[in-house]
Design brief:
- Keywords: Coiled coil.
- By secondary structure, the protein is mainly alpha-helical.
- Among the domains are: 64 residues; 62 residues, no CATH class.
- It is 64% helix and 9% strand.
- It is built from two helices and six strands.
- The strands form three sheets. The chain has a two-stranded antiparallel ribbon. It has a two-stranded antiparallel ribbon with strand order 3-6.
- The protein is flat.
- It starts with a helix and ends with a strand.
Length: 184
């Protein structure tokens, strides 16, 4: 009976050893997977830390540059002569702009008067197709127009709501498809 017990004991030990080897292998593979995950996460954290360091360096350099610019501006503002020169330059430019605006308004008024006189003159007429104004008795073959009818469906080129039957295009796509004499 002792032999059997011994034998049983040795079998049990062998069996226990076998299970523990399997468990050890399983634990080792589990540890390897965990180590791989931790290593991967560690590498990602390293990259993030490098990015943060680079961002901090950039911000510090930018901050130093801004501080230098601020010091220069403050020193310029403390210099009363510098500030006065800037004010004088700004005032000169504003006066020049006001003078230019006055001159432009005068020119605009003159152009509007001349345009009204021309349009109301009996010797001038406007083309009903293109709106070109010209003297009575003159007519050139420079009128660009659409001879077709205006339809309201869809332009073949851009898809607008209106188009001409002569070329299936609208005024935005083609100002005119035919050249001819102006029509009073």
């Amino acid at each position: 009976m002792l032999l059997k017990t011994r034998h049983r004991s040795s079998l049990q030990t062998t069996h226990d050893s076998f299970l523990s080897e399997l468990e050890v292998d399983r634990i080792i593979s589990s540890c390897n997977l965990t180590l791989a995950k931790v290593t991967s996460e560690h590498d990602e954290i390293k990259v993030q830390i490098q990015d943060y360091k680079a961002s901090i360096d950039y911000l510090q350099k930018s901050n130093i540059q801004q501080e230098k610019q601020l010091k220069v501006l403050k020193s310029n503002l403390d210099d009363k002569e510098y500030v006065q020169n800037i004010k004088n330059d700004v005032l000169k430019k504003l006066n020049g702009i006001e003078d230019n605006m006055d001159n432009l308004e005068k020119y605009l008024e003159e152009i509007q008067k001349i345009t009204q006189e021309i349009e109301q003159s009996p010797i001038m007429w406007k083309c009903i197709r293109c709106g070109f104004a010209q003297k009575e008795g003159q007519n050139e073959a420079s009128c660009t127009y659409h001879p077709g009818k205006l339809k309201y469906f869809s332009c073949r080129l851009c898809g607008q709501d209106e188009y001409f039957t002569c070329c299936n295009r609208c005024r935005d796509c083609l100002y005119g498809c035919t050249k001819g004499l102006h029509k009073p």
